[in-house]
Design a protein that fits this description.
The chain is an alpha/beta fold. Helices cover about 35% and strands about 15% of the residues. The chain is built from seven helices and six strands. The protein has a six-stranded parallel β-sheet with strand order 3-2-1-4-5-6, with helices on both faces. Helix 2 packs antiparallel against helix 7. The chain starts with a strand and ends in a 9-residue tail after the last helix.
């Protein structure tokens, strides 16, 4: 039987409690057998973003999940042609890991604009989607024809009242509340490497 692997892609700039909390929820509720945090070298829809280095973001993600069985941070996209599109990544994953059945984890905000994704029709036809609440009402209606979709599952999941942008702002402002947003190991690494010191770093 194939392992049900949920691909949770993002910049993770930096990884925070919302990311890891969602991944744990998916495991605890049995939606998947494991979650891979797929650290993206560059998001094609966020080309103007200034990111921490790939190595730093990957290391922070690995620190955040090191003690959580079933969740791992992956650098799989680092070796793929850029920009890295999700459809390309999924094709390569299927070839590289035939023992797994991949699904895609996306937030409601991305689901609303899913029609803008490269080869979104291919993704819908071949991979189940797990859509979690983020940034407003959770609805399956986003203008796409789901007749041939492999499966789109809207789930109830805990929402965290902050984003990576807000984490970076809190870090820049030396706001003590940042300790509630990211793992202590990640916070220590950020301070050691002097990351996110500029308010323009997105």
């Amino acid at each position: 039987m194939q392992i049900r692997t949920g691909i949770f892609g993002g910049s993770f700039n930096p990884v925070h409690a919302g990311h890891t909390g969602l991944a744990r929820h998916l495991l605890e509720q049995g939606f998947v057998d494991e979650v891979w945090l797929m650290v993206s070298p560059r998001n094609p829809l966020k080309q103007s973003a200034t990111l921490a280095s790939e190595a730093d973001r990957l290391h922070m993600a690995r620190l955040a999940v090191a003690q959580t069985p079933g969740i791992e941070a992956s650098d799989f996209e680092f070796t793929l042609p850029r920009p890295s599109y999700t459809a390309h990544t999924l094709r390569r994953l299927v070839r590289a890991f035939p023992d797994r059945r991949f699904s895609l984890i996306v937030g409601a905000d991305n689901w609303r604009v899913f029609r803008l994704w490269r080869e979104h029709g291919y993704i819908l036809r071949h991979y189940p989607l797990i859509v979690y609440p983020r940034g407003g009402q959770l609805s399956a209606d986003n203008g796409l024809d789901l007749t041939d979709a492999c499966g789109v599952r809207l789930i109830a999941a805990p929402e965290f009242p902050f984003s990576s942008t807000q984490v970076r702002e809190a870090l820049h402002a030396s706001d003590s509340r940042v300790a509630d947003m990211i793992a202590p190991e990640v916070l220590a690494y950020i301070r050691e490497k002097n990351l996110y010191t500029s308010p323009t770093e997105k």
